Amino acid sequence: MAVTSENRNPLLEIENLQLAFGGVQVLNGIDITVNQGDIFTIIGPNGAGKTSLLNCINMHYQPKGGSIIFDGNKLNGMKPHRVATFGVARTFQKVELFHGMTVLDNIKLGRHFLMKFSILGSFLRLPNIVKDEIQHRSEIEEEIIDFMGLSSFRYSPVGILPFGVRKRVDMARALAMRPKLLLLDEIMSGMAVEEKEDIASYILDVHRDLGVTIIWIEHDLAPVMDLSNRVCVLSFGTKIAEGSPEEVQKHPQVIEAYLGRQK
Ligand SMILES: Nc1ncnc2c1ncn2[C@@H]1O[C@H](COP(=O)(O)OP(=O)(O)OP(=O)(O)O)[C@@H](O)[C@H]1O
Ligand SMILES: [Mg+2]
User: Fold this and answer.
1) How much distance in Å is there from the Cα of 188 to the middle of ligand 1?
2) Which of 32, 78, 128, 164 is a Cys-bridge partner for 82, taking CB atoms 3.0 to 4.6 Å apart?
3) Ligand 1 pocket, mutate which of 18, 19, 25, 26 (most atoms under 8 A from CB)
4) Atom 24, ligand 1: which residue's CA is nearest?
5) CATH class held by domain 1-87+179-263
6) Are 190 and 220 in contact (CB under 8 A)?
7) Where are the domains of the chain?
8) pLDDT tens, position by position, 68-122
């Protein structure tokens, strides 16, 4: 059942976002508000700027204008690892896991990355406090491995796992950072129908049981219409529509720019 976005607080506020590479304007004046508890989908044709938008949210790309406020913190100018410590995690369009390493070690790597910065940033803390934090993070990893149905793959090298399971590992790696906001870039791309249904149920579990707000990019409109409470449509770097899945489906510009083939 889709959630609704009434009466909830904004978690992410993007205003007049501008991104350019050389002379090419990739994002042009994007305004988006994502409320706590949203499953917010970004759709749009290839090259519309969807991945670039996620890359701006975690400051992998530094926007040249506009502002991004997450949970009351302005993210502009921060490094991606700093953004992660505020509770923003992501999966990647092309899986970026270490294929020769086990599921557990891949998930731990994400944690070590975060820990390194939190330890460096708090060098005055006592060693046993840091040790407790490491212990706590290990417990979280074990919980997440269970939660994502990966227990039997814990010691398997990621490279031998089916594609759909690898995507779950990527999601588990992101979840081990205990995010408030999870960014999923085309997590269903290249999946068979059953794998899509499987990952859809994990997305719903993460949303409902872990209370994580989700922004996801997806090309297949059937799961978008099923899972999302809000949909935003990008085309050539601008937002051409936003609303409930039903509203967006009826929008004339969307029909023309994106859904034309399905009329
Ligand atoms: N690092 C970069 N350097 C130069 N141009 C870039 C860079 N990243 C993205 N672009 C350009 O920005 C535009 C938007 O790309 P982006 O990957 O955000 O699109 P997308 O909507 O995610 O497309 P797809 O559906 O194919 O994944 C494209 O023209 C792309 O070539
Ligand atoms: Mg993309």
Assistant:
1) 19
2) 78
3) 26
4) 46
5) alpha beta
6) no
7) 1-87+179-263, 97-175
8) 999 999 999 999 989 999 999 999 888 778 999 999 989 888 666 566 555 454 5
Ligand 1, atom 30, lies closest to the CA of: 47
Instruction: Say yes or no: CB of residue 213 within 6 Å of ligand 1.
Output: no
Residues 6 or more apart whose Cβ sits within 8 Å of residue 200: 188, 223, 226, 227
Concatenated DSSP letters for the chain? -----TT--EEEEEEEEEEEETTEEEEEEEEEEEETT-EEEEE-STTSSHHHHHHHHTTSS--SEEEEEETTEE-TT--HHHHHHTTEEE--SS----TTSBHHHHHHHHHHHHHHHHHHTTTTS-HHHHHHHHHHHHHHHHHHHHHTT-GGGTTSBGGGS-HHHHHHHHHHHHHTT--SEEEEESTTTT--HHHHHHHHHHHHHHHHHS--EEEEE-S-HHHHHHH-SEEEEEETTEEEEEE-HHHHHH-HHHIIIIIGGG-
Report the residue count for the chain: 263
CB 50 less than 6 A from any atom of ligand 1: yes
| Residue 19 CB–ligand 1 contact under 6 Å | no
